[in-house]
Amino acid sequence: MPQAHCYLHLALTAAAILLVVPLAAAYPWQVCGTTGSFTANSTYQANLAVLAAALPTNASSSPDLFATAVVGAVPDQVSALALCRGDTNATACSACLVTAFMDVQNMCAYDRSAAIYYDPCILYYSNLHFLSSDDNVPAASTDRINLRNVTSEPARFNRLVGALVNATADYAAYNSTRRYAAGEASFDQEYPKVYSWAQCTPDLTPAQCRGCLAGIIARMPSLFTDRVGGRFLGIRCSYRYEVNSFLHSPVTVQLAESGSAGAPAPAMEPTTVTPAVTGGGRNHSVPGTVLAIVLPTIAALLVINLLVWLCFWRTRRSQPCLACQNPTPAAGTENIEIIESMIIDISTLRAATGDFAESNKLGEGGFGAVYKGTLPDGDEIAVKRLSRCSAQGVGELKNELALVAKLQHKNLVSLVGVCLERQERLLVYEFVPNRSLDQILFDGERREQLDWAKRWSIIHGIARGLQYLHEDSQLRVVHRDLKTSNILLDMNMNPKISDFGLARLFGRDQTQGVTNHVVGTYGYMAPEYLTRGSYSVKSDVFSFGVMVLEIVTGKKHNGRHDDDGRRSPAQDILSFVWEHWTAGAVPEAIVDPRMGTGFSRSDVLRCVHIGLLCVQEDPADRPVMSSVVMMLGSDTVSLRNPSSPAFYGRNRISPTSSTSSGEYTAG
Ligand SMILES: *[C@@H]1O[C@H](CO)[C@@H](O)[C@H](O)[C@H]1NC(C)=O
Ligand SMILES: *[C@@H]1O[C@H](CO)[C@@H](O)[C@H](O)[C@H]1NC(C)=O
Ligand SMILES: *[C@@H]1O[C@H](CO)[C@@H](O)[C@H](O)[C@H]1NC(C)=O
Ligand SMILES: *[C@@H]1O[C@H](CO)[C@@H](O)[C@H](O)[C@H]1NC(C)=O
Ligand SMILES: *[C@@H]1O[C@H](CO)[C@@H](O)[C@H](O)[C@H]1NC(C)=O
Ligand SMILES: *[C@@H]1O[C@H](CO)[C@@H](O)[C@H](O)[C@H]1NC(C)=O
Fold it and tell me: How many CB atoms lie within 10 A of CB 641?
């Protein structure tokens, strides 16, 4: 049995490394809109909830597995479209759409428009009236490239794929009322078959459908030349091709043998495509929609003999066979498989980062250096090279990383890949262009970019991300090292929390407990964590409070006193803010002068008030994050009066050796 277990892992590892090869973002793929945002408990949110309740059922019960809906009145009107792939059944369709609504509201939280793509379904909603148009909404489209190249006869392969995808598109548009087609063509010994899929929403006319597909097929040469697989996903039409079967139903189009762009011969008697392999693959899958979606793709590839051979081949080349090194039956297969599907091989990462060139180094984080990289398909990534040795074996590490990968929220940096080859432990994240908050907030000139509206939205975003970590994710995560350098800003200055979940990799801790391994940054650490190693969501709330006060004042908190023991206002912002608060001089006397004057006095006052509540000495006096989000979102909720903050008026228990921003490790 362990043998069998091991072989399964082997097979999956090999499949992931050699066949599925990195898609540069975690599945599913979301495209968050730029048509504005809505607020918690707004009419817009209520309308969206109506859609979420009705659309999965409406789509899955329609013969075309397609539904559209418009709910509410302008300006809170939401239009939506849901479509399942032509070879999906009603059960899988409905489950996929239910998951889609849940995921997208985390991944594009509070965005008025968003698209999300899964293998079996797509979902799009927007405050704009897109339904009357046949436009594919380019801004909501996405493409995914299978990064593996064909090696023999690439030119013939490209021609074959072009002809196959064209023929599949023709059939979908002109010969299927559901606007769906699946195709197949023969290639060579290395890749005996190429499979394709094309689909439009069934409300398009044949000409509209073919036009839509022609538009995205025209992108093939620039995106997919020489690639063994690729897909272009849009809300109105999509296509995909792969050298392995990803289809669940018989093909409708069979391309004639020749590699030239000859006339396609539609299959009169549809061929049944590898049902045995696909079905066999799914038997060991565990319940869960995402898995049900991811697995068949991988599983369909499992030609066991080939893989066993591959493994021996890899072993002969003295590369460690990861899964065998450390079989941990305890780790859930589900999690192992999630991580296997995210594996990116070291050579790809070396190439992407210029062999970890110093010039590509973005910084040195708590757990190791971070490098910028660009994958061959142009996707930008940030690669974290863990410097510390995790106490965990590969199996356990994968388990932990799978949990981190499942944490998906607009205000969290998403993990898109991992590499655990040889001694390397590399985590691949989405690239967030504006670096970290501290680099702007504490920079004499750049901080002027942060007017009050931006600061307010940053505070709000961090609060939502943290609420998700603490309360809304399946896994309740205490961050344990929240600070401005762990808040990254995207193009639109939306904050994204980074490094979450990493404390667990090194500490094996529960969400609450006492640790003798304090992972944190001096100044941001709650008193109980600093002195007793006791942490909980409330110690994160403390760090959040410190950040709020930093964002408002533009002063960096290092939580220390001057050498002669006097408190220095510039350094100890908790005391600084508290003293002005009690003197009634907030906000004027404390706001960052570089922020300009265009701020709402009451909003700033409220933020400071909330910040002070978060830095109370007693964890029980600090609010939980959902309360913080609520207090930030409404000015009718009345707030308790804060007492003096932690550390106030006491001589500090200051470890003399600590630096202002270094990590402080006790025990
Ligand atoms: C779902 O379908 C039912 C029955 O066809 C219809 O009454 C309802 O309005 C639909 N819901 C939405 C949100 O379109
Ligand atoms: C529907 O499809 C799913 C996944 O493809 C499969 O597991 C399930 O058995 C199918 N259900 C029916 C009723 O065919
Ligand atoms: C694959 O082909 C593309 C385009 O021809 C090329 O840019 C890329 O470097 C190749 N990648 C690998 C891994 O060979
Ligand atoms: C696909 O069809 C388009 C237009 O119908 C044509 O321009 C293109 O050359 C075709 N591509 C291939 C590879 O046959
Ligand atoms: C597909 O539709 C086209 C145009 O209507 C027609 O000429 C062709 O025969 C159809 N093919 C099949 C297989 O039905
Ligand atoms: C939204 O409504 C829920 C349930 O009614 C409530 O618990 C929550 O406090 C409200 N949030 C805001 C920001 O008003």
Answer: 8
574-583 mean pLDDT: 90
Q: Are 235 and 81 a contacting pair, CB within 8 Å?
A: yes
* pLDDT given at position 571: 53
Is 384 annotated in a binding site? The answer is: yes
pLDDT of 518 reads 63
The span from the CA of 656 to the CA of 667, in Å, is: 16
CB distance 283 to ligand 2 below 6 Å:
no
Q: State which ligand 2 atom lies nearest to the alpha carbon of 282.
A: 7
Per cent of the chain over pLDDT 90 is 45
Ligand lying nearest the CA atom of residue 175: 5
pLDDT band at 606 (very low <50, low <70, confident <90, very high): very high
Q: The dihedral of CA 221, 224, 229, 233: what is its sign?
A: negative
Of 306-320, 425-439, 548-562, the range with the lowest mean pLDDT is 306-320
Pick the catalytic residue from 87, 111, 345, 481: 481
What are the structural domains of the chain? 3-24+297-430 (3.30.200.20), 33-132 (3.30.430.20), 143-276 (3.30.430.20), 437-666 (1.10.510.10)
In this structure, are residues 612 and 581 in contact, taking their beta carbons and an 8 Å threshold? yes
- For 339-398, how does the pLDDT look when each residue is reduced to its tens digit (9 = 90+)? 777 888 888 899 999 999 999 998 877 678 899 999 887 889 999 888 765 556 677 777
Nearest atom (ligand 4) to Cα of 261: 14
Query: Pick the residue with more confidence: 298 or 162?
Result: 162
Residues 272-287 have a mean pLDDT of 28
Strands (E), 375-434: 380-386, 415-419, 426-430
481 is catalytic: yes
Q: For residue 618, with 0-12 CB atoms within 10 Å meaning exposed, 13-18 middle and 19 or more buried, which class applies?
A: exposed
Ligand 3 site residues (CB inside 6 A) read 149, 225-226, 376
How many CB atoms sit inside 10 A of residue 158's CB?
A: 18
Q: Does ligand 5 have an atom closer than 6 angstroms to the CB of 315?
A: no
Ligand 1 pocket member 58 (CB < 6 A): yes
Q: Which of 58, 62, 71 to mutate to test the pocket of ligand 1 (most atoms within 8 A of CB)?
A: 58
Are the C-beta atoms of 372 and 382 separated by less than 8 Å? yes
> Percent of the chain at pLDDT above 70?
76
Detail the DSSP E strand segments found in 215-325. Answer: 227-233, 237-242, 253-254, 265-266
Per-residue tokens: 306: 């080939």
